[in-house]
Amino acid sequence: MNQSKERILPVGPLMKEHRLIERMIALLNKQARNLESGSEPDICFIEEAVDFIKTYADKCHHGKEEDILFRELAKKELSREHFRTRSELITEHKYARETLAALVDAKNVYGGGDKKAKKKIITYLKALVEFYPRHIEKEDKRFFLPVMDYFSRDEKDDMLNEFREFDRALIHEKYAAQVERMEKE
Asked: Which CATH number fits domain 11-184: 1.20.120.520, 1.25.40.10, 3.40.50.300, 3.40.50.720?
């Protein structure tokens, strides 16, 4: 019997990445609740979470969306709804970057001895916790699968290959930057 192999859509890996991001967001939510209950900020946790969001959620995940999927969609005549949604997603990515930068600033101020910065840490943690589930739902349920109809089978395969290459290059970029930073210290 000739079994047809299920084709992987380029958005499959993006949706899989969402599941890991959701797990990190649950951890951010736990940290925010702990802080609201009187605990002090776990600076090491916040630094690791920031690294995850900056590297995995933004550079890797949003990078593939913006640098590959959105670039390819820009070549297509999108419906008004898909064009609007793509524009919203780009704006939302910018918001996530700005909120993460504000969290880093608040963490640094707190680490510098200003204990009042704890309130800002809570604010930015909660902002990320509120943001990501809505953003992910929009991509998963209203955007990723419908926009695949704009692409031919070959275009989808090319995009999937470009996603794989993007991931391979990213790991080298991350660790090259880490070595350079360590050499300067």
From this structure: 1.20.120.520
